[in-house]
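Our collaborator T.R. sent over the components below with a one-line note: 'Predict the complex.' Nothing else. No constraints on interfaces, no templates requested, no preferences about which chain binds where. So this is a plain run: every listed entity goes in together, and whatever single assembly comes back becomes the starting point for the next discussion.
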Amino acid sequence: MFDYHALAPELIVGGTLMAALLADLVLPEERKYLVGVVGIVGLVAALFPLLTLGFCEDLGFCSGATERVMFGGSYVVDDFALVMKGLFLVTGVISILMSVGYIESERYYQGEFYWLIVASVTGAVVMASSRDLITVFIGLELVSGPAFLLAGWRKGDVRSNEAALKFFLIGVLSAAILLFGMSLVYGLTGEITFEGIRAASATLADEPAFVMGVIFVLVGFGFKISAVPFHFWAPDTYQGAPTPVAAYLSVGSKAAGFVGLLTVCYLAFSEVASIWGPALWLLAALSMTIGNLTALKQTNIVRLLGFSSVAHAGFVLVPFAMAASYDAEGLQSAFFASITYLLVYAFMNLGAFAVVIAVAAKTGSAELDDWAGLSRYAPVPAVLLAVFFFSLAGIPPLAGWFAKLVMFRAVLGGTGAWGAALAVIAAVNAVIALAYYARVVKTAFMDPVPATVPLADAGAPIAPALVLALGVTAAVVVVAGFYPPILSFFGDAARALAFGG
Amino acid sequence: MTQYFQDYITVAVFAAFGVLLVLIAVGASALLRPKNPTPAKSASYECGMDPVGGGWSQTQVRFYIYGLLFLIFDVEAVFIFPWAVRLEQLGGFALVEMAIFIAILLGGLAYAVRKGVLRWES
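Returned assembly:
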């Protein structure tokens, strides 16, 4: 019989999908936001089984191992999976909160919009537990499929169409590359589960076809996490897509790609770390440097955040790039650093996008020039803008500094010149990043207000749902910055994966 | 070279022979036959009607939705047949599972009906 407790989050999210679909059918046009409410309630409800699973022993539900293996090792619910599922569910909730006011003004297919976000989150939740190639692939496609539609939501807008088309073509290309790599790996090892691949791959490190398979899998995930040189779709897609969707793509969809990449590298390819270690080193160095240098030149805030998310993908990869040269303890610390960075990044980036939505409602655009003197007529959004952008830059006492700290600690924990070189590159990039984040804040606080802004209705209050999204993300960023043990608790839980395999 | 790649040699040899066979048959007849083309000979002979109009024709876009709906219930049938054959052994649990599966699909049909995709006019 199945372990329904372990599958409860997926079952609840699946039930939420049906409920949202049916709610969309019966609700009149002016009440469609209730579909979003159904989605939020469902996603929040799915958080509770995560808690009962995570503190299973303390609550007295079960005894012994917290790790639950199902479907012949294809689906594993361990602490790592629980933490990531929690992240995806919270990301989904915040994305829906950000969308409510934004989508209502568009006046079409609102119900489907919320439904598609929940569907995409379902895929991400499945990915966190997947421990075989096919389940990972299905999860990844379930994340991407709805996201293609969401990116092209404003169908009258040429940019939105461009965003959806680019995202779709790149998504299909990366899926094809990923599948090709997986088919090579399967052909040579004869195994689908990560555990089986790991056992069979020890003798294959010198086999050219296997090396190619591993590299192709990395490239496929590289597109999903928009690491340089597979990043070029990301800024265009973020700029054209509706801003809440861009926020979801840059956090939920990207984190799903990271989960896939980390579990595949760590669990399936751990015997052949000499193949993916140098490749990830290169991806990390290029992503940070090119992402940050290009962001310096951006004049549109959403595009700037797009390139900044490329750079942050590089930072997340930094600890893991050196994993090949680590001993067991170093590997744990690398895993801890990557997961912690991902958690922090999720909240500060969602917050930054929420600020963009709030401010764009007052200035009418996301161009940096129109944001000049924001603090004169919209002090609260301006302060929040400073909070999230300085957090992204890694300035204490906001959460971003802790992410950068654990990242540097992990990469310097290893030995050898390559680790030191990567640390230097990361440090230089942290400084470059500060330049463009600070420039936005300086424009908002110090430059004179241009004649064209603010809009006539700039005095209107921010949508309540958006206020809630801003409040939650700001609270996490500030509290976690002052009291990092909150985050290290989750990071530590996720690190348990290091011993799972 | 591993066994993995050696298996592909068989495929390559097979493909090469296939191409060779066609080349020999067509090439030999081209070399041996007399060449004396006339318009009557070049016309399509006993191969159906002479084609009229272009190769592209437009189809109502609504058939796409019908195609999608058909596909969904086609897949449902694929699942139901083996399930029906083994139902006695699988027991009541399988019955409940199939009921849930069909209920989910009916949700899709209800969505299609409510959104008016099955109405031809409008």
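Summary for T.R.: The first strand of chain A starts at residue 68 and ends at 70.
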